[in-house]
């Protein structure tokens, strides 16, 4: 059983970075336009919305099912990880909270990822409005909640971000910037984990729902080789993005083993050896 947090303090309630609430904890929100694909299987739906007459990108998250992540643990890992820790480190909403909390700590909010203004909750009654206006029905809300009055159902959890309408084409220069930003995040203990063109706007990362931020529970219980693979996922995804889009870049994310092998010094011939 997961205890619902107090939505008036920085989240998540665990060791490590946290995201503060939006300056107005109960804002009046007007949803103008759906920015994401309503039929996608992503972690959330993103809207252009107005709060206090200012336009933002508001990311409303689907409801989290801990059993999916619990099933991904193997062997004795289930005994090592509490529900609270698993939820705090695996829920896509908390993934973004922790990543943005770390960027805030490092004074990098808005510099290597789109600016985040904090999190909010949105009343469950909004579900009807979003269904009518945008034909969105899939929120993964626990089925038993529909037996309760709407006023007793869990609220939506959302993150408020800067609205970026301008975009730039994905070029080699932009890809190099993405890699530099990714490496800055990694030095801060954030591993974005989902480096794809669709997750960037105007050269800035806009989606960190798959990010792993230190301290991260799997880094403490899996082998060094497994941890290295998890940490390097974003680098290999960047390489794949560059290759798929045939981009000419100045940088490389990972070592080119074939090229490095060609640079290795050849063995010297022993004295008196025949040509």
Overview of the molecule:
The protein is of the alpha+beta class and 275 residues long. The protein has a single domain (29-259), classed as Transferase(Phosphotransferase), domain 1. The chain has ten helices and nine strands. The protein has helices spanning 66-71, 77-80, 83-90, 92-105, 126-134, 172-187, 217-221, 224-231, 233-244, 257-263; strands at residues 29-34, 44-51, 54-61, 116-122, 156-161, 190-191, 200-201, 204-205, 212-213. The strands form three sheets. A five-stranded antiparallel β-sheet has the order 1-2-3-5-4, sandwiched between helices. Strands 6-9 form a two-stranded antiparallel ribbon. Strand 7 and strand 8 (204-205) form a beta hairpin. Helix 3 packs across helix 4 and helix 6 (172-187) runs antiparallel to helix 9. The longest helix is centred in the middle third of the chain and has 16 residues, at 172-187. It is globular. 28% of the residues are buried.
Secondary-structure map with pairings?
Layout: E1 29-34, E2 44-51, E3 54-61, H1 66-71, H2 77-80, H3 83-90, H4 92-105, E4 116-122, H5 126-134, E5 156-161, H6 172-187, E6 190-191, E7 200-201, E8 204-205, E9 212-213, H7 217-221, H8 224-231, H9 233-244, H10 257-263
Antiparallel strand pairs: 1-2, 2-3, 3-5, 4-5, 6-9, 7-8
Helix pairs in contact: 3-4, 6-9
InterPro entries: Sim4_Fta2
Pfam family, one: FTA2
């Amino acid at each position: 059983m997961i205890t619902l947090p107090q939505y008036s303090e920085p989240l998540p309630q665990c060791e490590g970075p946290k995201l503060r609430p939006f300056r107005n904890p109960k804002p009046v929100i007007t949803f103008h336009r759906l920015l994401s694909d309503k039929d996608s299987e992503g972690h959330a739906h993103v809207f252009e919305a107005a709060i206090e007459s200012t336009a933002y990108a508001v990311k409303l998250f689907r409801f989290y099912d801990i059993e999916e992540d619990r099933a991904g643990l193997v062997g004795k890992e289930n005994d090592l990880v509490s529900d609270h820790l698993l939820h705090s480190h695996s829920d896509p909403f908390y993934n973004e909270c922790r990543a943005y909390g770390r960027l805030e700590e490092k004074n990098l909010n808005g510099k290597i990822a789109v600016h985040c203004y904090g999190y909010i909750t949105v009343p469950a009654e909004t579900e009807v409005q979003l269904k009518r206006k945008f034909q969105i029905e899939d929120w993964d809300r626990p089925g038993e909640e529909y037996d309760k009055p709407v006023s007793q159902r869990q609220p939506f959890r959302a993150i408020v971000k800067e609205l970026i309408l301008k975009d730039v084409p994905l070029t080699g220069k932009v890809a190099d910037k993405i890699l530099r930003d990714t490496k800055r995040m990694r030095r801060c203990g954030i591993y974005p984990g989902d480096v794809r063109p669709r997750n960037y706007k105007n050269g800035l990362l806009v989606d960190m729902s798959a990010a792993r931020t230190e301290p991260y529970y799997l880094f403490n219980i899996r082998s060094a080789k497994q941890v290295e693979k998890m940490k390097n996922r974003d680098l290999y995804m960047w390489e794949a993005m560059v290759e798929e889009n045939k981009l000419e870049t100045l940088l490389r994310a990972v070592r080119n083993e074939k090229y490095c092998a060609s640079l290795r010094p050849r063995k010297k011939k022993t004295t008196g050896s025949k040509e």
